């Protein structure tokens, strides 16, 4: 019955880890045997691993205490274009960023992004994006 699954999960994880340890040992891979054995002991002592735990660890580890804000040349499903401006090879986003900042230094992040998108619209198919290491106020002054 489904009600037994939460009770059986730790047992199944321990059995699986011990089976992996035994197979690894028999094949001569003592490092994997040791790690699988330790995983079984960890499950017995601390309980089963869950997706919730994995998600929490991922969220904790995928953050930076630094203030990182990035403009990307395009969406993930697009390609960022290279171009030639005044005979010099450059990226389309780099050109747009320099142009936007030279037109008005006192802009917020949202204005910079909007103005870069307007400059590139019609010339390229890419749509610039912004991302950061944590939540930011897009209407705060752009700082470099």
TrEMBL record:
A Pfam family that this protein carries is Peptidase_C14
Give one GO term, molecular function aspect.
cysteine-type endopeptidase activity
Question: What is the phylogenetic placement of the source species in the record?
Answer: Eukaryota, Sar, Stramenopiles, Ochrophyta, Eustigmatophyceae
User: Which BP terms from GO are recorded?
Assistant: proteolysis
Under the cellular component aspect of Gene Ontology, which terms does the record hold? cytoplasm
Q: What is this protein called?
A: Putative caspase
Q: Which domain of life is it from?
A: Eukaryota
Tell me which stretches of the chain form a coiled coil: none
> Which residues does the UniProt record annotate as the domain Peptidase C14 caspase?
53-135
**Family assignment?**
Belongs to the peptidase C14B family.
């Amino acid at each position: 019955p489904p009600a037994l699954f939460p009770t059986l999960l730790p047992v199944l994880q321990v059995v699986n880890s011990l089976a992996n340890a035994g197979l690894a040992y028999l094949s001569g891979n003592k490092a994997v045997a040791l790690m699988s054995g330790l995983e079984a002991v960890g499950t017995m002592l601390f309980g089963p691993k869950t997706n919730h735990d994995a998600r929490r660890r991922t969220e904790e580890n995928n953050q930076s205490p630094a203030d990182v804000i990035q403009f990307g040349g395009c969406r993930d499903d697009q390609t960022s274009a290279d171009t030639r401006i005044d005979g010099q090879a450059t990226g389309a986003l780099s050109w747009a960023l320099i142009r936007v900042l030279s037109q008005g230094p006192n802009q917020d992040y949202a204005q910079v992004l909007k103005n870069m998108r307007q400059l590139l619209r019609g010339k390229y198919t890419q749509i610039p994006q912004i991302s950061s290491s944590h939540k930011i106020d897009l209407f705060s002054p752009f700082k470099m």
